[in-house]
Amino acid sequence: MATVDITAETFEETIEKNEIVIVDFWAEWCGPCKSFAPVYEEVSNESEYENIVFGKIDTEAQQELAAHFQIRSIPTLMIFREQVVLFSQPGMLTNPQLKEVIGKVQELDMATVHAEIAKQQDAAE
């Protein structure tokens, strides 16, 4: 699957309707973003990741989303699984690094993750 542009209007639906969503926060003027784009596109087109949404958010056009996620440096990569942010890191990744992170996200036992979140929420109340 090729990358898709995500906007404030499509963000929530994209996260809710897909098990895994990887988001690249970028900007046209950003040199490292331009260097990372081909790596991101290449991985997004691999058949083993056909059930993953690879989204791109232009931080200039979608300033409210960038502000909501406190994006301070670009590119920043975020990975959501079952509507939970499991990975958020500024900077470029190489092809093998990106694949390694995706593999770790896929291996996670989400029942355990959701139980831990619930436990933290109960403790905060």
Present the secondary structure layout.
Elements: E1 4-5, H1 8-17, E2 20-26, H2 31-44, E3 52-58, H3 63-68, E4 76-81, E5 84-90, H4 95-107, H5 110-124
Parallel strand pairs: 1-3, 2-3
Antiparallel strand pairs: 2-4, 4-5
Descriptive terms for the model:
electron transport, Thioredoxin, transport, alpha/beta, 5 strands, 125 residues, 5 helices, disulfide bond
Structural class: alpha/beta
Order of helices and strands: EHEHEHEEHH
Q: How many strands, which pairing sense, and closed or not: the largest β-sheet?
A: 5 strands, mixed
What is the fold named in CATH at topology level? Glutaredoxin
Termini Cα gap: 41 Å
What is the number of helices? 5
Q: What is the fourth-level CATH superfamily?
A: Glutaredoxin
What is the radius of gyration?
15 Å
CATH architecture: 3-Layer(aba) Sandwich
Number of strands: 5
Total count of domains = 1
Question: How confident overall, as mean pLDDT?
Answer: 94
CATH class annotation: Alpha Beta
Uncertain stretches of 5 or more adjacent residues: none
Strand order of the largest sheet: 1-3-2-4-5
Task: Give the % helix.
Answer: 40-55%
